[in-house]
Amino acid sequence: MIDDAVGLLGRTAVRTLRGIPVVGRLLGAAPSFDVEGRVLFITGAARGLGAEIARQAHARGAHVALVGRRMAPLQELADDLGERAAAFEADVTDSDKLQDAADAVVARFGGIDVVIANAGIAPPSDTIATIDPAAFERTVEVDLLGQWRTVRAALPAVIERQGHVVMVGSVYAFFNGVLAASYAVSKAGVEQLARTLRVELAQHGVSVGYAYLGFIDTDLATEVFADDHVGAVRQAIPGFLTRPMTVQAAAAAVLSGVDRRAARISAPGWVAPMLATRSLTTAVMDDVLMHNSGVTGAIRTAEALRAKEVVERAGVTDR
Known about the structure:
Layout: H1 2-18, H2 21-27, E1 39-43, H3 48-59, E2 63-68, H4 71-81, E3 85-89, H5 95-109, E4 114-117, H6 133-160, E5 164-168, H7 181-202, E6 207-213, H8 219-224, H9 228-235, H10 239-242, H11 247-260, E7 264-267, H12 271-276, H13 278-290, H14 293-313
Parallel strand pairs: 1-2, 1-4, 2-3, 4-5, 5-6, 6-7
Keywords: Oxidoreductase
Pfam families: adh_short (PF00106)
Protein name: Short-chain dehydrogenase
């Protein structure tokens, strides 16, 4: 029994270390799963990270199924990419539409090898006490349940090909979600979804990875910090943690994870060590945020803004 436990710990350690690109190269190559010739089912593919993943995968010889809510930008990207690319309209809040899209992809390309569950929205910058319940639930609906629906729709096809699933997540899986609770809750939930799927699908030869991505230079990241008071939270965190990486670098990291069937994808470089020491770094982060006057002020501002909106909606004005 002890030998089994030691062996398990050893294998887990090697897999974790292989997830760090520099260390992984030193340990030797993990099983290769090159995207060339594979069929990738990508949600949120109309813009940002999803579109860039599609471009890079297509350039490497993959067939890319571009899935999203708005057909026009998807079709434009498909036309730009040309052969081996096709657009499919589906909202991740609609299970039936997602299933129709997955079935259509199988009919068009013959199957699905890789799922990139990427669709997501930015949260409103409110506290838990002041956020509109509908807005909180909408974020969870898209960012968490949308990923679950995506995987469910494509799973039979992925199992048939013993493929790979990537749940595109965020460092908010373990970062404090102050003024972004619905987003952080969703990303933490997706992390657990990925871990559970990894165990449940192993017997079918399917691998599952979670992408712990830092801030990316996309519209979504811009929206997260759009309000002035949210900037105070950003200033309380060391600059390198919130400095956005390019969308090209983020997409390359995700595809590198697919190549390695990686359980954990992390980018930029500071994410992996923080992830490895998350019990310590999260405790320090919580303490810093709780005792930072700028963060306290940002929370008060968010509360005041919401109170003002409530008053204005009620038609009451200050005299």
